[in-house]
User: What shape does this take?
Amino acid sequence: MTSTDLVSFRRDDPLTKSLGIVIGVLILLVGIVTYGVLLILFAFTSFLLLSRRWASFGWAILSGTLVGVGFAAGSLAMNAVW
Assistant: This one.
């Protein structure tokens, strides 16, 4: 039995295909928007860190981000182990 024989019996209706395409495009758009927001936040934080007046605010944002990433990584690790 070849792989084409295994796949040939599957018949997806048009609604399933179009729904899969819509969900895939939405996931792609969310990823692009998230990447853009992170890029803007990185540029803003870099600007704050390089300015003398707002450097402490930039460090506060950066440390808060690192704490958030640490909590997210810890949560993912605990969910994977638990």
The helical segments are 3-8, 14-50, 55-81. The chain has three helices and no strands. The first helix runs from residue 3 to 8. The chain has one domain: 13-81.
